[in-house]
């Protein structure tokens, strides 16, 4: 097909050339051999021109570019293989269990008390060396000159407490009686009927409240005793320790508010004796 096209193009060229010549000088008629020779020459020249147009202009650049593409392909394959190896290592790694939580304290929500603690009573505005006694059921405070009386139809009690020690004068207090309790010290003795008051306590940073029965504890070593009813559900006692919470500093006396009515459940100080 290509040869036919070339032949047609050459023939057209030859015929065109013949047509343009002056009629006065008409060319000699071409024989078959001459025509074929010229046709072959034109064909060779045309094929050479086509091959020259199709030949790459910069073979060196194409070779270098092909080499770079091959190197990049190798690097990509290397990275893919490394990623697969890393993923396999993670899957095969031994999972280290998380450390277990620290065991809960045996005390739970309770706080620790020593055999002897310093306890501050808000209503008396004083601190007392206190015996923490799991053998006693109720709690009591050393009170002297205990006198019962009525106020507004309710039972009240007046009593003295040595807030600064027995070498200093005692302070007189008044408080509403919440109930009475009978304590039997000895099988041969009668029951000791004691008035009970309500008080708010502070032991170190802990605050609590409890009922205290009033009794003369002058023959005992400590003016305040806290028993099982106070200890239960809030504290644990270590009899091998003392003053676990230190000795609280006694705050300054509160100035009474003349416009504030006295609460019936409060202990009222009536002066020094």
From TrEMBL:
Residues 62-89 form a coiled coil. Residues 113-247 form the Retropepsin-like aspartic endopeptidase domain. Pfam families: Zn_protease. The keyword Kinase does not apply. PROSITE patterns: PROKAR_LIPOPROTEIN. Residues 245-273 are annotated as: Disordered. Keywords: Coiled coil. This is Retropepsin-like aspartic endopeptidase domain-containing protein. It comes from Shewanella decolorationis S12.
